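ENTRY TYPE: paired fold submission
RECORD: A
CONTENT: sequence, then structure tokens
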Amino acid sequence: MSRSTPRHVASRPESVKGPSHAHTLRRHSLARALGMGLTAVLAFAAVGGATAAVRLTGNITSVDADKLLGDDRPEKKMPEDPNADMPLNIVLMGSDSRGGENADIVGDGTEGARSDTTMIMHISSDRSRVELLSIPRDTTIDVPSCPTSSGGETSPLYGVKFNAAFSQGVMSGGDVESGALCAQKTIETITDVQMDGFVVVDFAGFEKMVNALGGVELCIPEDVDAPKADHLVLSAGVQELDGDTALKYARARTGHGLGDGSDLNRIGRQQELLAALAREVLSAGTLADPGKSLKFLNAVTDSMTMSSNFASIKGLAGLAYSARNVRPDTIAFMTAPYEYDPNNAANVVLTDDADEVWKNLYDDKPLSDAIKADASKNGKKSKDDAKDSGSDSGATEAEGDVDGATPVADDDTAAEEKATDGSGEKTQDPEPTRTREAGQEAFTGADVTSVCG
């Protein structure tokens, strides 16, 4: 149904017509997975990570990524301050496996599993920034030999699309875990940055997740008619999408109202959907409702594959502790810098600018200008916080803290400070004024990315 225009979208002008604590681990799939990867972290923080973890870890399929990937990996940069946290770099992927419930949701006869769109989620060492970097599925790359979950090895591939890495792992190892291992190994080869683990989620998980939240509110800039996306039809305007409709929108690539039909164009829409999911999880309606949060987390974890150190109780609790102060304006989205492949017009190649992004990723510096300096400063942890979560033993302490933590109160305190002018008088938060083009420019969850009415 149509809704009134929310803060994060701009009203359509009348003249416009048209519709650190641990090392942690498809065709048409970004939002199906990434919404669950990022928002799961946020929801764990909302409900008390350790309590939720005890109940939900049994849902998760896991594999020991660090053991299987071995020692032939990029070295991690250690912080100069021994009491500081380590930054986290987590690979978020979606799987289009047609096994189990997924066959009922998308019964199109496709076999195997792919991960056509993948993100790196970077959580800064001071926990003031969460940055999500999309890697286009059609990026021309070489895929190294990768381990499988059973201890085997895949054959290397040369001059193929990035999404071939996941497929190669699945075909060789016979499971999603092997696909994720090969995708992670390939990313580490491309970036020369060690990843701390992976999260993979499938069709069924995404649909259940959105329904558990009661739907997700999104600006649809113009009328959509996408026959190939299970006959998706949407009217222009602010819409509340249920799980089935959100899944179709995440998959849609061609049709009226969907741009040029490219995967690159779809990445922007999927980033917007992910930002909307994050806003919903961070909203008072979710944070103040542990029952709703737990329902959401149960839906997510029931369809999730993770590296084993994140899938443990300590791993989930520590991850929740790391993300406890995240806000929409401290979550950024961007796409790895690319240009069209001169040898294959259907592909892209990463540019020299991508090398600077990988360097910043390694050095734990902002990957873009999306998050404003004052926003990240407001989200920084205290020195005592850093000591609590800066090591495995600290994560254990954090686990106890999370049980009794009140992330909502933390957020409220930050909001109180932000909502005063220094004299004790309350002031209203200003409406967002910055406009960014999703997929082409880096943006945060608080920015305007679509014109709606």
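RECORD: B
CONTENT: sequence, then structure tokens
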Amino acid sequence: MLEQKQFLKQIHIDTCSEEPYVTLENILCDIYIKQSVKTLDISETFNLPKPTAVAIRNELISHGFIEQANRKIILSDRGDEFVRNILGYGFVCLDKYHKFTHGDSKTIEELSSKIQLILEQRPSVKFELDQAHCTVETLLDRVRLSLLNFDIIGRRILCIGDDDCLSIAITCVLKSIAMDKGDICDITVIDIDERLTQFIKTTGVNEELPIDILSGDLRFYHLINLPQNIDTVFTDPPYTINGLDLFLSIANLSLEPIVGGKIYLSFGQKKIKELMEAQNLIHRKGFLIEKIIKKFNRYEGASILGSKSNMYYLIKTDLKNVPTVCNQNIYTYSNKNKNVT
């Protein structure tokens, strides 16, 4: 199976080396989920020029990953085995997957009720840490978005700060769509709030949710055993430029050192000047803003955010960027107190 991954990497070099390697894996996952696609579907879904999509199709056929049947592309036995066993989709019940991603009302209601019941025991927010709990609906929207982007199943995930308890939502959803017991992804949480990390740890044990926990202040990250070679980062940082700087630096240090690592960044709407500063910082940190979904996140009584924030979908592109970690005041609360004094 690992030999097949090398074949896939060679196809990537031969056909679309300017794109992230993970694009090839995602194409195979897309075919697996949809059962069959057209070449034009590959071009449109992954924003590839049609000649590139044709070249990828031909090479995947040549190496035995896919076949053509009735003018459509399907996975071969080899491709199916690769997606199931190497990319992690063998643990997933596709019927349950489709019900969740298509918003089946009964599925969503059951998950919402379960997660809401768990979160009733969550510690209250610490305003001095810029905490603000998003709604359960937002949690499920985040999971759905990242599933559709192929950024959860079979991936190594890091939640940098998790007062929303997204890690619990992700593992609850994955457990609900699983065919059998098995870890569909690896997920780690880092947070400074020990009340929160203890709650997530205890919940993980009680609910049989596979979540690894790290406690610590990211400003002193060298004291934390940061996970390496992460595929996907979720973060909802303090709503200051210093906070954004710090959390993006930690993400950069943790992501696998290749083009294509993903970040789901939840960040509040700012005034134009501050927004430009934030987006310039994102680019300086070596990330491409692939998409911004306005008012994607909704919060419970978060007046500092206007109860909403935007979702930034970022892709790691600059491997030469050397992360610098900001250890100044990162919280709105700290900066307000500083201004008062």
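NOTES ON RECORD B: The chain has two domains: 2-87, 92-340. The chain is about 45% helix and 15% strand.
STATUS: closed
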